[in-house]
Amino acid sequence: MKILHLSDTHSFHKEVEMPDLSDIDMIIHSGDFTDVGSHADLKSFFDWISGLDIKYKIVIAGNHDKSLDTKFWDDKAQPSDRYRKHLFGAREFSQQELARFRSDPNHHYLNNESV
User: Fold this and answer.
1) What is the pTM of this model?
2) Long-range pairs for 82-85 at CB < 8 Å and ≥24 separation?
3) pLDDT at residue 12, as a whole number
4) Hey, which residues does 110 pair with through a beta bridge?
5) Is 26 within 8 Å of 77 (Cβ atoms)?
6) Residue 94 buriedness (CB in 10 A; 0-12 / 13-18 / 19+)
């Protein structure tokens, strides 16, 4: 099995110079795929990774992917957080984007879990 691993693309995923994907079986993106976690950035990333011709996809959020951070929301998205203005409605849109991504049984978003 050949695995392509990426991390810390910070919303520049479309600019990553990709290898030949024809023999890649799995892609893993392990954190910081957005710069803040805005709806536009999440949608762009999940559209991009879903469109890659690779069967198995695993995504893990990083500290910059705030809209997917349940602790951030459980702490009531601290009013002093400088990113708050970029994340209006994030609890809802992040769950919608995850549901869309996970609709393929070979796409996995991991949050304190394994596959």
Assistant:
1) 0.86
2) 83/36, 83/37
3) 96
4) 60
5) no
6) buried
